[in-house]
Amino acid sequence: MAPYFWLALLLLAVAFLLRVDFIYYILYVLVGVFLWSRWSTPRALRNLVASRTYARRAFLGESVEVTLTLSNKSRLALPWIQFHESVPPELRLEESTQHVISLPGRGTRSHTYHVKGLQRGYYRLGPLRLTGGDLFGLARPRLGYLPPDYLTVYPRIVPLTRLGLPSRLPFGTIASHQRLFEDPARPMGARNFRSGDSLRQINWKATAHTQKLLVRTFEPAISLETTILLDLHTTDYERRDRLYWTEWAIVTAASLATHLVNQRQAVGLMSNGVDPLRLQEEARQYDDVTGRLLFQPEAAGQNLRAYMPTAIAPRAGRPHLMKILEQLARLDARETVPLYEWATTAGIRLSWGVTIIAITGQGDEARCNALHRLARAGFNPILVAVEPDANFGRVRERARRLGFQAYNVSSRADLDRWTPGGARPAGVAP
């Protein structure tokens, strides 16, 4: 503004001293342009509406299209608008997010860019910073912004093609001595037709052979649910490569949950990790390097239990699986509650007979004893240790003596060929 002021003052002086009327006309035009710019540009900027459209959830490595839309609701044109969208580095940016455009009155412009999630997490997109002004720079640039939005990147999922779990024989199907339920996947024989039997149960081949009306019978079974008990207590993992193995534990949990849901089984999730999203909005911080939402113990105080995620009850279906994956995307490994203390407490919330897949670092004596208590309480625990252990045969034998099965799944190959083969609690007949 100052250069134009001095220019106008100089023209006025020249016109007055030289008595050149033409210079007065130039001065009038300059003053008019200045006043118009100072009046119209701020009003047009106040009627500028920005929006962001994108899919709020994505799988690892999936490209997400983000569309920024700028709409001028005023009849006055905007000569130039500069916008810049902040994107965390862990979301690989495929196009530039900084551009300069112009908007006519009642006009709309859109800009599209793509990001790709390279690591699971809960990321912030934005804010979108806006700067606008007039063509000649006579009006003061106006600043504005669009509040940030958030993108959830699901953890990596390993397809389990050889897990050895037929769709009708999940982890949680065990034999029962009580004839409350009959499993159609377990035919046993035939019996005489009784009043109230369904016609669909009639064994027509046996009926034709014996000349008696016979119905099929099946072995009694109870179809139980599965809950994944994900251990993210940091000291339950070896200090070396702790970050890698906790991430692998999350991948294992996501892969098992996906497989069970695809097999039309009910699955739930419980974890002693922390959820940074439970912090107050003003206390949330994002890593400068990765862009992920971080958990700050100083903001949470010392009561880390308050930031442990709530249990997700077992259910079947794709929408429920997305809920589990979203929770796994946000979890952080912290020193909260050890598995051997937390497992028994977690079991209180579960129904009797639920299969519990405990995913942890190693199968030491304390963790095996915790699962033994769950087995004695009527649950069907399975230990999955994700850290490599050359002496895991001892762990497997200890688990067998305590009434459950144990597996060492430290690589994708281990996870792919893992065949539990119908683990059952001790004392339950096959």
Give a verbal description of the structure.
The protein has helices at residues 2-18, 21-46, 204-210, 242-262, 297-300, 318-330, 339-347, 365-376, 392-402, 412-416, and strands at residues 48-53, 57-58, 63-72, 78-85, 91-93, 98-103, 108-117, 121-125, 128-133, 142-146, 149-153, 173-175, 182-192, 214-223, 226-230, 267-271, 285-286, 293-294, 312-315, 355-360, 380-385, 405-408. It is of the alpha+beta class. It has four domains: 2-45; 48-134 and 143-153, Immunoglobulins (Immunoglobulin-like, Sandwich), CATH 2.60.40.10; 187-222, no CATH class; 226-273 and 308-416, 3-Layer(aba) Sandwich (Rossmann fold), CATH 3.40.50.410. The strands form six sheets. Strands 19-16-15-20-21-22 form a six-stranded mixed beta sheet, with helices on both faces. It has a four-stranded antiparallel beta sheet with strand order 1-3-7-5. Helix 7 (339-347) runs parallel beside helix 8 (365-376). The model is unreliable at 164-181 and 419-430 (pLDDT under 50).
CATH superfamily of the largest domain: von Willebrand factor, type A domain
- Rg calculated over all Cα atoms: 33 Å
* Biggest sheet character: 6 strands, mixed
The percentage helix is 25-40%
Low-confidence stretches at least 5 residues in length (pLDDT < 50)? 164-181, 419-430
Any key phrases for this structure?
single chain, 430 residues, Immunoglobulin-like, 4 domains, 10 helices, 29% strand, disordered C terminus
Write the layout of secondary structure elements.
Layout: H1 2-18, H2 21-46, E1 48-53, E2 57-58, E3 63-72, E4 78-85, E5 91-93, E6 98-103, E7 108-117, E8 121-125, E9 128-133, E10 142-146, E11 149-153, E12 173-175, E13 182-192, H3 204-210, E14 214-223, E15 226-230, H4 242-262, E16 267-271, E17 285-286, E18 293-294, H5 297-300, E19 312-315, H6 318-330, H7 339-347, E20 355-360, H8 365-376, E21 380-385, H9 392-402, E22 405-408, H10 412-416
Parallel strand pairs: 2-11, 15-16, 15-20, 20-21, 21-22
Antiparallel strand pairs: 1-3, 3-7, 4-6, 4-9, 5-7, 8-11, 9-10, 12-14, 13-14, 16-19, 17-18
Helix pairs in contact: 1-2, 4-6, 7-8, 8-9
